[in-house]
Design a protein that fits this description.
Length: 467
């Protein structure tokens, strides 16, 4: 559910959910209002028919009481007494018969009397006194008890109305779905418009995180609280740029100033070692000084190179060259170093053109192959491969050493970072070679990755843009 973690998707989800609830509630309310209004019209029509039917019925003549007349009763169905019940033609018009309108009479214990259109299975309502309404499937019925034991029921089919209500429900659902879809599209566009300043802030921050500290957030379209946030971030980025520039200048100045005294120390140590009659104790002391001076010189050169890369003073002088030919030259110069550890270097070089600074790429190749020689298995093998893949030039360096622990892999390109045991400093490494190589590749808009090989060892992969 990576997409749902997006702020835009969350806004769209909640907006859509609330709008769907509101739209569904309005549609349901409209459907219920229309249905109840139609049912009320049907019930009113049936009640009028009940009144007409009651008015057409003659009450039976029972023996009058001494104090009051007997209550009116419905005349029973035609029988020996000759009473008459109204026919359908007396009560129902043509439109009523089209709607399958019918009536049913019950008189005490006498058999019921039903019109010809009355459906089978009608049972006598149990309630007494008040007018009642009931729904039986597609039949709507109104009934009344004018006297104890008597019941008059009038009903008709509402199948047509039920179909109309279904069509109304489908129409409301379809209309609501259409409105909901349009609202979602509008909401998606509105959410994108609202979040565009945040996206611009994120894009600018991503560029700054790659080292482009000169980038600033465009505040022209962010005139709300986001504009205030963008202004604060721009001020922060400006201070960061100033701080990094000062740090880079300090590192470059310090490295530059250290070159001269280190060179003097190295010169005097070498001169002392070459002097005749030097005792073994003094020779060992001057040798230690020379080795320390050599290491300090390499450190100052690396720091100066990194400072120049950070300050943009070592911008690549891009030119088209064959990556395979540069690898061949660098590997030829490093074979004596590999032979000291009895390591065989195998190359598989496919001609591939790339647009880069050849001298800086030589530095990358040198660092990667030297790293493989120092940390590979003694009497082992190193494989260097170049090829063209997906419109890019790739360089791969594989060694068969102990590999790198997974917790250290994300940090191998950090400055002065050395992995214990597998990446010891016993060979004089200072943890800057891979950092320099990574900075050079980044300056060429390329990528550098590292991974452990399944069979053991480490694989470094460099991807550079082609011509």
């Amino acid at each position: 559910m990576k997409a749902f973690r997006s702020l835009r998707w969350r806004l769209q989800f909640w907006y859509g959910a609330l709008f769907a609830i509101a739209l569904g509630g309005l549609g349901f309310a409209a459907y219920q209002v229309e249905r109840r209004a139609a049912q009320a019209r049907i019930d009113e029509e049936l009640q009028r028919k009940v009144i007409e039917l009651l008015g057409s019925l003659r009450p039976a003549q029972g023996p009058p009481g001494r104090d009051q007349p007997p209550p009116p009763r419905l005349r029973p169905p035609p029988g020996p007494e000759g009473a008459r019940v109204p026919s359908e033609s007396d009560l129902f018009e043509e439109g009523d018969r089209v709607r399958s309108m019918y009536f049913v009479l019950w008189h005490r214990d006498a058999p019921r009397f039903a019109s010809s259109l009355a459906p089978a299975g009608i049972v006598r309502p149990e309630s007494e006194g008040a007018v009642g309404v009931r729904q039986r499937g597609v039949w709507r019925e109104v009934f009344v008890h004018p006297a104890p034991g008597d019941c008059v029921l009038v009903g008709r089919s509402v199948e047509h109305e039920l179909a109309e209500w279904r069509r109304l429900g489908l129409l409301i659902a379809a209309s609501s779905s259409g409105v909901f879809a349009v609202a979602l599209l509008c909401g998606w566009g509105l959410a994108g418009r609202v979040l565009r300043p945040i996206q611009n802030i994120g894009a600018t921050a991503a560029k700054i995180s790659t080292g482009n500290l000169a980038q600033r957030i465009d505040t022209r379209d962010a005139d709300s609280e986001l504009g205030e946030l963008a202004a604060v971030l721009n001020a922060t980025f400006a201070r960061l740029e100033t701080s990094f520039a000062q740090q880079a200048r300090f590192t470059a100045d310090a490295a530059h100033e250290l070159r001269t005294p280190v060179s003097v120390i190295l010169m005097h140590a070498q001169a002392a070692l070459s002097a005749p009659g030097l005792g073994e104790e003094h020779r060992e002391a001057f040798g230690a000084c020379e080795r320390a001076a050599q290491r300090m010189r390499r450190l100052t050169e690396s720091l100066l190179q990194l400072a120049r890369l950070d300050a943009g003073q070592a911008a690549p002088r891009r030119a088209v060259f064959d990556l395979a030919s540069r690898v061949t030259e660098v590997v030829a110069g490093l074979r004596p170093l590999a032979e000291r550890r009895r390591i065989a270097i195998h190359v598989e070089l496919a001609p591939t053109k790339c647009l880069a600074d050849a001298e800086q790429i030589d530095c990358v190749i040198t660092n990667l192959v030297t790293n493989a020689i120092h940390h590979g298995r003694e009497a082992g093998e190193i494989h260097v491969v170049t090829r063209r893949e997906h419109g890019h030039s790739t360089l791969t360096v594989n060694d068969d050493g102990p590999g790198i622990a997974p917790e250290h892999l994300p940090h191998v390109f950090k400055r002065f970072y050395r992995v214990d045991h597998a990446r010891s400093s016993g060979a004089g490494n200072m943890g800057l070679g891979l950092a320099i190589a990574k900075a050079i590749v980044d300056a060429h808009n390329g990528t550098m990755e590292v991974e452990n090989r399944p069979g053991g060892g480490t694989r470094f992969m460099v991807t550079l843009p082609e011509t």
